[in-house]
Amino acid sequence: MKRSITLIILMLFAGCSGGYVYQQAPALEFSELEYGFASRSAVVNGIRVSYMDEGSGTQTLVLVHGLASNGGFWRYNIPELSKYYRVIAVDLPGYGKSAKGVYPYTMSFYADVVSGLIKELGIGKVTYIGHSMGGQIGIHFSFRHLEQLERLILAAPAGLEPFSRGDGDWLKSVMTIDFVKKTPEDRIRANLALNFYNYSDAYEWMVEERTRMAKAADFEDFCYAVVRSVHGMLDEPTTKRLPQIRVPTHLIFGENDGLIPNPILHGGAAKDVAKIGTDAIPGVTLDLIPSAGHMLQIEQPEAFNALVRKIVQ
After folding, report:
1. What CATH number is attached to the domain comprising 31?
2. Residue 142 is part of which domain span?
3. What is the pTM of this model?
4. In the sheet where 86-90 sits, what is the strand order?
5. Number of domains present in the structure of the chain
6. What are 215-263's pLDDT values in tens digits?
């Protein structure tokens, strides 16, 4: 808890958190994002969706990123997992190299897009792996497209922690397009540090990417997607619906997650939110990764990949 408070103070007064390194660098257009793997695209429900397709095998993993990120946030997992499985890493609409526009950006909208991509690629049942917001999308996916689902792996998922109407109203009021659009580099770095137990220069690629993206031609459309996605998570809560999940489900949390539960509104520890899931989801399993924050798949990729392999086999 002490560490969370310290990081929040750092986020609010971030002038000495690393300074301005990329502010003068040229714009990075979304089409120029470098993930380390070839991107492909398909038209799904009338929307151009970008994705990576690596590896082969009898089982397919679909990796779905969280809020304000993209498919490249799985770069430490794809190389290992694609040795054993076909791995599809998606850029959700509004993010990464996928189309950006005035879309619903609800959790059910995203679930239907992922479903449509799976159909477009001619894949049968999949293991759905969702991080953070991608986890809440996965819960909706299980309600809407059960026939496509082998199992759910929810990594530090949104959708377990309950938010009151007042909580939601406050979050919506502070999360505006201008708030996202005008975030300076030092604040970006401080915000990203909240996602890690031990932030280091190894993760500076995220700061550079986000800072240079702010100069991209369609950055405001990205900001709109982020804001509407927050509304989408709050407007389609799943906490009370967890007992309705009817597919084998596995929770993975970083023991030192500084974002779940929400440190400003709720406080507590990730294990408290994990318990909500283990108490409510039929037959669920839980693993906690030591020395890992919210970005557990990036901070502890070997442990995360090993858990996925143990679960999927």
Report:
1. 3.40.50.1820
2. 2-312
3. 0.94
4. 40-44, 47-54, 86-90, 60-64, 126-131, 149-155, 249-254, 285-289
5. 1
6. 999 999 999 999 999 999 999 999 999 999 999 999 999 999 999 999 9
